[in-house]
Amino acid sequence: MTDSFTPPRVRQESSPEEHGETDEKEQNDLSGKTCPECSGRIVHDEAQAETHCEDCGCVVESDQIDRGPEWRAFDSREKNDRSRVGAPQTQQLHDRGLSTVIDWRDEDAYGRSLSSRQRKKMRRLRKWDERFRTKNAGERNLKHALGEINRMASALGCPDPIRETTGVLYRQALEKDMLRGRSIEGMATAALYAGSRLENAPRTLDEVAAVSRVDKIEIERTYRYLADELELEMVPTDPEAYIARFASELGCPDETERRSRELTQAAVEAGVHSGRNPVGIAASALYAAAKLTDQDVIQNDLAEIANVSKVTIRNRYTEILEAADKVSNG
After folding, report:
1. Residue list, annotated binding site for Zn(2+)
2. Under CATH, which architecture does the 237-327 domain have?
3. What is the CATH number of domain 135-228?
4. Of 127, 130, 136, 221, most Cβ neighbours within 10 A?
5. Is-same-fold flag (135-228; 237-327)?
6. Considering the entire predicted model, what is its pTM?
7. 125-167, pLDDT tens digit by residue?
8. Where are the domains of the chain?
9. Per the database record, which ranges form the TFIIB-type domain (predicted)?
10. What is the spatial distance between Cα 243 and Cα 260, in angstroms, rounded to a whole number?
11. What is the per-residue pLDDT across 285-313, written as a single tens digit (0 to 9) for each?
12. Backbone phi and psi for residue 33, each to the nearest 5 degrees, phi listed first
């Protein structure tokens, strides 16, 4: 995956915790420097705003600029109240979150209700503000697609890294005019499927199709087109990537999850996964691990979560145990 998939970041006021991370980075930067007088170790003293030698006390640099905030915060609410900067840029919004939004509440700064005349004025301003945020057809397309991506990602429980990567993929498809003759929903769904795989938190095609407004065949076709045109380096999905999610939904303990990962690794090493559905391998490994750790996991529940048949679980279950024995004995 190239650097173009890394969402841009903007500078924010650093919190006391973030400022501590900066101090640690400065200490790491000084690790290779020595004192000009005695060749001793150079350290940075934040309280005195100076850099000095730990051995002889020679001050190498003083009156350094404190780039942290002038305020302190002791909880997240206090931090948000005192911060004077906005949210960072995000690929999840068509304008990357840089535009302003007029609040929907008809109240002034003191919480008092607006008059009838002022409410009408604010409604007109909101309408024009919304129109100016999408100046052309491309921005309207992007706004609709990102809204669809966020809807599907919320239904699938996808974290922010997947959403950000998906937003970048869709923007690149739009810039390359790849949507000609294709639906917005189809390209958005294909980008979400590709983004989840690129972030090593894959969702199955059936899971994505279940929350999409287009059918599975169109998703497959659009995904192949997207991967080819953007030259995405898609490696085969590792069955181990599904285990954590399946184990969490079944409420399996850590011991069962760890054992299932070991079985999956043994199956991959023995080549059992070749030509097989990675979801079936993961589900069968989890079922085998549950049996080995005396956990009561019902095949019907596991098959429903993984969206595979009970026959698949039973067949792969035997193959995985045989592969684990061969690897341990070999």
Report:
1. 35, 38, 53, 56
2. Orthogonal Bundle (1.10)
3. 1.10.472.10
4. 221
5. yes
6. 0.68
7. 888 888 878 888 888 899 999 999 999 999 999 999 999 999 9
8. 135-228, 237-327
9. 31-61
10. 7
11. 999 999 999 988 888 999 999 889 999 99
12. -95, 150
